[in-house]
Amino acid sequence: MGTMVAPSLLAANFLNLERDIEMLNRSEADWIHLDIMDGVFVPNISFGFPVIDLLKKATQKPLDVHLMIVQPEKFINEIAATGATYMNVHYEACIHLHRVVQEIRKKGMKPVVTLNPHTPVSVLEDILPDLDMVLLMSVNPGFGGQQFIEHSVRKTAMLKEMILRQQTSTLIEVDGGINLETGKRLVDAGADVLVAGSFVFSSEHPEETIHQLKML
Ligand code: DX5
Ligand code: ZN
């Protein structure tokens, strides 16, 4: 009930994307999480604007765009034009993070800052009030289907503590290696939104799996 779920399209069947999107539309998924990779920031390349644009036409669900790219500030206008709700940029990819966050908001999107597994939550102390959400990576970004990094549970709790102390309404989203077991521990530690790729799309009954994640 309280937990929000954002299935990652990376694990969908790209030859049958329409079928998978219809499944997501019928499901209780809150948002659709889109993983954009440039082969520079991460050692993989995924999909780009043509797919996002088509997807926007095929769903009413809010789009949560996770940019694993260098210089994400170059694409703020283009991402805004897709109709995306959340624009996630990596802390590690932005020298002038505060400016990027302001520009994302100016374009009508909700700014999210993503942290790689090695980046401590303490780097967000001064920017937390400007963010709608923080995305904690619980795997090293670049690929679906990786093993959950255990420290992410403690990290979620530390971020929750910072949010309560600063009295902001920032959401906590966690991404990578999430299933019912890791998801439950993250929710108990304070996570509001769970991203799940392979766990949803490799399950026999993806809609039911999304429902179960929402019940955590
Ligand atoms: C990893 C991506 C994730 C990924 C999650 O670089 O940011 O969103 O698709 O996939 P699973 O849930 O399979 O770990
Ligand atoms: Zn992601």
TrEMBL record:
Gene3D superfamilies hit by this protein: Aldolase class I (3.20.20.70)
GO molecular function ontology, one term from the record: metal ion binding
Active site, renumbered: 35, 175
Family membership noted in the UniProt record: Belongs to the ribulose-phosphate 3-epimerase family.
Organism for this UniProt entry: Proteiniphilum saccharofermentans
Binding residues for a divalent metal cation: 33, 35, 66, 175
Keyword Cell cycle: no
Chemical reaction(s) catalysed: D-ribulose 5-phosphate = D-xylulose 5-phosphate
Annotated protein name in UniProt: Ribulose-phosphate 3-epimerase
Gene Ontology biological process terms in this record: pentose catabolic process; pentose-phosphate shunt
Biological role stated in the UniProt entry: Catalyzes the reversible epimerization of D-ribulose 5-phosphate to D-xylulose 5-phosphate.
